[in-house]
Amino acid sequence: MLVELDAHCQHVNDGCGRCKCDDYGISEAILNRKVEAIVNEYNELLATQLENQKLVSVSYYFHFSW
């Protein structure tokens, strides 16, 4: 899952290249939800990988213990 993070900001035309956020609270909430989704996906992937590793280890153990 790829998530695009956009800042929802407008550039200030004062020549300094700063970014002025009109609705910081909403932008922060959106960013937090996207980060949470990434963390949840990572945790699912990690749990799946650990489960697969455990299954391979058990299979290996039973294969060579007979």
Could you characterize the architecture of this molecule?
With 66 residues, the protein is mostly helical. The protein has one domain (9-65). Helices cover 64% and strands 9% of the residues. It has 1 helix and 2 strands, in the order ββα. It has one helix spanning 24-65; strands at 9-11, 19-21. A two-stranded antiparallel ribbon has the order 1-2. Strand 1 (9-11) and strand 2 form a beta hairpin. It is rod-shaped, with a radius of gyration of 22 Å. The relative contact order is 0.11. The model has no long low-confidence stretch (mean pLDDT 77).
Q: Give the overall pLDDT as a whole number.
A: 77
Strand order of the largest sheet: 1-2
CA-CA gap between termini = 42 Å
Helix segment tally = 1
C-alpha Rg (nearest Å): 22 Å
The level of helicity is 55-70%
The geometry reads as rod-shaped
Largest sheet: 2 strands, antiparallel
Model regions low in confidence, pLDDT < 50 over at least 5 residues: none
Order of helices and strands: EEH
Number of DSSP E strands: 2
Number of discrete domains: 1
Beta-strand content estimate = 5-15%
Structural class: mainly alpha
GO molecular function: ubiquitin protein ligase activity
